[in-house]
Amino acid sequence: MARRSNAAATEQTPDPVRTYGPLTIDTRTRDVRLHRLPVALSPKEYDLLLLLADDPGAVVDRRRILDEVWGPSFFGPGKTLDFHVASLRRKLGDPGWIENRRGVGFRLVAPA
């Protein structure tokens, strides 16, 4: 009789709460808090923040953001991404949270 592996039972499930300095993102409830205060985000703003938070500090190129947040068939206004980034920066209270790498994309960084 073959023994069954318990690999699935021993695998670690990722923590649903991600913390980046004073910013916390609860992926289970889609709650975002900054300095423990709730931040009200639209669904697209949340998805954008979560994508950038997947690898903080890494630059995510514009095409990947558009594909993953809006879908690969999105052909809306060219400034849609810029509008959402600006709105997210305002809601986070400091534009330093999201850095623009001109001609490439954006990255999440904790402001100094």
Notes on the protein architecture:
A hairpin with a 2-residue loop joins strand 3 and strand 4 (37-38). The chain is built from four helices and seven strands. The mean pLDDT is 87. It has 112 residues and is of the alpha+beta class.
| Count of DSSP strands | 7
Compute the separation of the termini in Å.
60 Å
Low-pLDDT windows of residues: none
CATH architecture type of the domain at 41-106: Orthogonal Bundle
Main sheet characteristics: 4 strands, antiparallel
Strand-pairing-aware structural class: alpha+beta
On the 0-100 scale, what is the average pLDDT?
Answer: 87
Please give the order of strands in the largest beta sheet. Answer: 1-2-3-4
| CATH topology term of the domain at 41-106 | Arc Repressor Mutant, subunit A
Percentage of helical residues? 25-40%
| 3D shape | globular
Spell out the helices and strands N to C.
HEEEEHEHHEE
Please state roughly what percent of the residues sit in beta strands, choosing from under 5%, 5-15%, 15-25%, 25-35%, 35-45% or over 45%: 15-25%
Name of the CATH homologous superfamily of the domain at 41-106 = Winged helix-like DNA-binding domain superfamily/Winged helix DNA-binding domain
Radius of gyration: 17 Å
Count every helix, treating DSSP H or I runs of 4 or more residues as helices: 4
For the record, the CATH class of the domain at 41-106 is Mainly Alpha
